[in-house]
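TL;DR need structure tokens for one chain.
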Amino acid sequence: MGNRILVVDDHDVVRAGVRTILATRPEWEVCGEATNGKMAVDMARELQPDLIVMDITMPVMSGLGSSSRNC
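>> reply
TL;DR here they are.
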């Protein structure tokens, strides 16, 4: 079983690019995508990903604010 990855960025194009890069590795699976830090925290609790690739500048809650929360 590979690594499950949550991708978080407020720009669709960036998320699509990251998803494309990650798809080149069969052992990596994108398990979800979020568009802001609050959504990322909620999805991380629900999906329990192995890794989170996150932008630090987003609306609602930044990636820095998200990372300081206990998921």
